[in-house]
Input
Amino acid sequence: MPSLVRNTLLLRLLGIQVTKEADRKIYRAGRGGYDRLHPDDPGSRAQSADAREGIQSFIERRPAVFQGR
Output
């Protein structure tokens, strides 16, 4: 097996292992733990009152009333 192919496969397997371990840590920490580990993740902000208002206003086809929360 050429070394480039072998290295690519090894890196892929390593990436999968690292991803699984990170998933386990995040699962154990709960959602609050994830938010602490990844404060810049847009998914964290999606739970804010303003985000919910934005989604609801879009569904209802009305202007959003944001409150800065």
Summary: The radius of gyration is 20 Å. Residues 38 and 49 are 19 Å apart (CA to CA). The longest helix spans residues 3-37. The chain is about 75% helix and 0% strand.
